[in-house]
């Protein structure tokens, strides 16, 4: 079932970077400063 109002967004790169940063005790702020959404 497809709905034109729902868009699939790949978050795999952000998720992997978040896991790496948490594992290394690094700041997560970088992830929130560099968010872009392409239409």
From TrEMBL:
| Keyword field contains Transcription regulation | no
Coiled-coil zones: none
Q: Which UniProt keywords apply?
A: Nucleotide biosynthesis
SUPFAM superfamilies from the xrefs? Answer: PRTase-like (SSF53271)
Provide one Gene Ontology biological process annotation.
nucleotide biosynthetic process
Q: What GO molecular function terms would the record report?
A: magnesium ion binding
Work out whether the entry's keyword set contains Chaperone. no
Q: Which family does it belong to?
A: Belongs to the ribose-phosphate pyrophosphokinase family.
List the protein's name: Phosphoribosyl pyrophosphate synthetase-associated 1-like protein
- Which organism was this protein described from? Callithrix jacchus (White-tufted-ear marmoset)
């Amino acid at each position: 079932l497809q709905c034109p109002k729902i868009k699939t967004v790949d978050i795999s790169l952000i998720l992997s970077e978040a896991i790496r940063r948490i594992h290394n005790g690094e700041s997560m702020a970088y992830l929130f400063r560099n968010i872009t959404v392409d239409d």
